[in-house]
C-alpha cells in the first residue's frame, strides 16, 4: 500500500488488537541513499515501544514516515489501521520532534490555546478546548508554570510544553523523537514515569526514540536499529535472555557483532578482539 495522504472516508475501524503500526518491506530513500531498507515490524497498541540505535541509523526518518511527513516511502505502512499519512490520522497521532516547537513569546497556556484552536477550531468548541488545554498542562505537571513565558522556561520544561501540545486531543499514538535528550537524570526519570502513566491511564501507544541504551530498559518493547535495518524486535527481557547478556546495551553490541559476522560470511573474528560500537 502506498502512503499518500488521502481524503477518502476512513474505512471500518480495525479490531482493538490490531497493531498501532504495521510495516512490511518499508523503504525510504533520502537524497541518493536508501535510508530505510525493507523494514518489517509491528508496534503493539497500548504499550511503550523504544526505537533505539546509533546516530544516523534512521530513527527520525522512520518516525517521519509513520506520522506521514516523509517523502519517498514505499512498501506497506499502516498506522492505526489506515495508510500512513491518511488525513483521518491527523487528530489521532501526537508527534514531538527533537527540537521543542513552542513560541517563546507566548505563555505555556497561550501556546496550548493556539495549537488547540488549530486542532479543534470554532466558537462551539471553546469549552472543550479549554478543558483539553488544562488537562494537557496537568498531564505534564506544568500547572504552576501555566502563565510563564515559554522563553523563560528550562529546557526540560520546554520539552514538556511540546509534549503537552502533542497530548491535546488525546491522541491514540504518540511519536516522540528523542524527548529526553539534554535532560538531567531526574527530569528523564520523571518524563519516563509520565510516559508510563499516559500508556496506562489513556491506553495510548507510545513510540519513543533514544540513543541512550539505559532508557531501553524502561520500554515494554524494543526496536533496535542499525544502518537502516531492524536488528531486533522484542522485549528487553527476551533480548537479554536470547543474547545471554545482562543489559540491553550488551545485547545490542552482541547483535551488532552477529550482524557484522553474518555480513562477512561468518568469518570468525580474531580471538580476544571485541568490537565496540558506540550507540551515539
Ligand atoms: N534531508 C536529507 N537528505 C539526505 N539524507 C538525509 C537527510 N536527512 C537525513 N539524511 C540521512 O538519513 C540517515 C538517517 O537519518 P535520521 O535523521 O533518520 O537518523 P537518526 O537515527 O534519527 O539520527 P539521530 O539519532 O542523529 O537523530 C542519515 O544517514 C542521514 O545522513
UniProtKB/TrEMBL annotation:
GO molecular function annotation: ATP binding; ATP hydrolysis activity
Region (Disordered): 1-21
InterPro entries to which the protein is assigned, alphabetical: AAA+_ATPase, ABC_transporter-like_ATP-bd, ABC_transporter-like_CS, P-loop_NTPase
Highest taxon of source: Bacteria
Keyword set, alphabetical order: ATP-binding, Nucleotide-binding
Ranges in a coiled coil: none
Pfam families recorded: ABC_tran
Domain ABC transporter: 21-252
Descriptive protein name: ABC transporter ATP-binding protein
Taxonomic placement: Bacteria, Bacillati, Actinomycetota, Actinomycetes, Kitasatosporales
Amino acid at each position: 500500500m502506498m502512503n499518500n495522504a488521502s481524503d477518502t472516508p476512513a474505512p471500518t475501524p480495525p479490531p482493538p488488537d490490531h497493531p498501532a503500526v504495521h510495516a512490511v518491506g518499508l523503504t525510504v530513500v533520502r537524497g541518493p541513499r536508501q535510508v530505510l531498507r525493507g523494514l518489517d515490524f509491528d508496534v503493539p497498541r497500548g504499550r511503550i515501544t523504544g526505537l533505539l540505535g546509533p546516530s544516523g541509523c534512521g530513527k527520525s526518518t522512520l518516525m517521519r514516515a509513520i506520522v506521514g511527513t516523509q517523502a519517498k516511502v514505499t512498501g506497506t505502512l499502516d498506522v492505526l489501521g489506515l495508510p500512513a499519512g491518511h488525513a483521518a490520522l491527523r487528530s489521532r497521532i501526537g508527534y514531538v520532534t527533537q527540537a521543542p516547537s513552542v513560541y517563546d513569546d507566548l505563555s505555556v497556556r497561550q501556546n496550548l490555546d493556539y495549537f488547540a484552536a488549530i486542532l479543534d477550531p470554532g466558537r462551539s468548541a471553546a469549552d472543550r478546548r479549554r478543558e483539553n488545554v488544562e488537562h494537557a498542562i496537568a498531564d505534564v505537571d506544568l500547572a504552576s508554570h501555566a502563565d510563564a513565558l515559554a522563553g523563560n522556561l528550562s529546557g526540560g520544561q520546554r520539552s514538556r510544553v511540546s509534549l503537552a501540545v502533542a497530548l491535546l486531543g488525546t491522541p491514540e499514538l504518540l511519536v516522540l523523537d528523542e524527548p529526553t535528550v539534554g535532560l538531567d537524570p531526574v527530569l528523564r526519570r520523571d518524563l519516563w514515569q509520565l510516559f508510563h502513566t499516559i500508556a496506562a491511564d489513556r491506553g495510548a501507544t507510545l513510540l519513543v526514540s533514544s540513543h541512550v541504551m539505559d532508557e531501553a530498559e524502561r520500554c515494554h518493547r524494543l526496536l533496535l536499529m542499525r544502518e537502516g535495518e531492524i536488528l531486533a524486535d522484542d522485549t528487553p527481557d527476551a533480548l537479554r535472555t536470547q543474547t545471554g547478556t545482562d543489559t540491553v546495551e550488551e545485547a545490542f553490541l552482541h547483535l551488532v557483532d552477529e550482524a557484522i559476522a553474518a555480513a562477512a560470511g561468518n568469518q570468525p573474528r580474531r580471538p580476544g578482539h571485541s568490537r565496540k560500537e558506540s550507540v551515539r
